[in-house]
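Subgroup meeting minutes
Present: P.N., E.W., G.H.
Scribe: E.W.

1. P.N. recapped why we're keeping a running log of single-chain structure predictions: easier to compare across weeks, and new members can see raw inputs and outputs side by side.
2. G.H. added today's entry (327 aa).
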Amino acid sequence: MVLNAAVSKSKAILLGESVACDAHEDGREIRVVTHAHYDHVLGLKESLRKCKAVYATPLTRDMLSVLYGRRAEEVLPLSYGEPVMAGADVMTFYPSGHIPGSAQVLVEGPEGDRVLYTSDFRLPGAPVIDADVLVIEATYGHPRCVRPPIDEVYSALIKLVSSEVQKRPVHVYGFYGKAQEVMEVLRRNGIGEPFLAEGKMYELTTVCAKHNLEVRDVINAASSKGLEILKSGGGYVFFKHVSKLGENVRGLKIHLTGWEFNVTHRKVSDDMYRVSLSSHSDFNHLLAYVENCRPKLVIVDNSRDGYGAEFAREVKKRLKMEAIAMP
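Output recorded in log:
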């Protein structure tokens, strides 16, 4: 059995003989974009020029078109559970629970070996896929990175928004995908005030709605209706990219962040709260994925932000499995 996986210096996750995920790698025929966050789209233009095929889920493909222009329309859509040949191997996508459209990537070799890349993922939500070699993220791979159960975080967020939006505007700051998740959660739990977004955030919300996410009734803040709501002085929820967190606005700011641990939320000031909502698994859920997958080898992605080396050590110590951080 050939167990073939690695993380290259270019930050590409190499699976089998032909697949490179989340960065370009010369010599690989197949490129995968697991989701639309910028650190997983590295070298996309080069991959579109040089690779035989570039794949993403249909929703990720449409999100890429919003974020990176019409060139991204050359990306081939591949649905969850739909196998495709990747050289002599077979490649299949599975949900990762990270953001809408995000995928885990399984590559099965001709000798029956199974190599899996989780990409960014979140438990509960992502299915645990059996594999001989597991390549796993470790954004929160340090033992101190533990958050309360997500249902408790949702409950705290819903309570905070429902109480504050009656009195003043609420501005929610998060990454693309996480913001759309919160739109769904708030709507499902009775928050009926106008939802606003603008620019790329609004365009991505429209794309998510076309793919049947429950992000309905979101108004373009730059439209005449949106401007009327902004001028009215009434309550509304305005969703914005986290890069705008430093702006001066009237109302309450809510910062959605994975770097708040052990509490559901924290009051920073009368006008600012931090809510412990992440699109990634925390340390306990990272460890649980490895334990349930039971691979022969764990490769921890050490090319992106996080605790790759620390998590590899914890896997060896706690689970007695072979684990290495790469590169």
